[in-house]
Amino acid sequence: MRAVTPIIEYLQTKLREAGPRRFHAIAAETGLSESILPKLAYGMRDNPRVQTIQPLLDFFQAIERGERDLPEPKSERQHA
Predict the structure, then answer these.
(1) Quick check: is 24 in a domain?
(2) How many domains does the chain have?
């Protein structure tokens, strides 16, 4: 039997794996504010709304299904 990971933990893991250099692209693709992503990734939001979680869940699950790729990270020069 598979252990079930809580959704917020799943999203925190996925966002941390993607890294902050990808947050701009993830925000653009999901329609979310870029500023919410580090808050979710590092546990600064205890109870995010479904309207925040659902686009990220759809995004990362599409990557897992092979329907899309994780965006390329910004280079250091672009990030500054």
Answers:
(1) yes
(2) 1
For 60, the 3-state DSSP assignment is helix
- Return d(Cα 60, Cα 55) in angstroms, integer: 9
pTM confidence score: 0.85
Where b means 16+ CB within 10 Å and e means fewer, 8-24 reads eebbbebbeebebebbb
What's the gap between Cα 59 and its chain centre?
Answer: 8
pLDDT in tens, 8-52: 999 999 999 999 999 999 999 999 999 999 999 999 987 899 999
Q: Which range of residues forms the domain containing residue 47?
A: 7-71
Residue with tokens 């990808």: 22
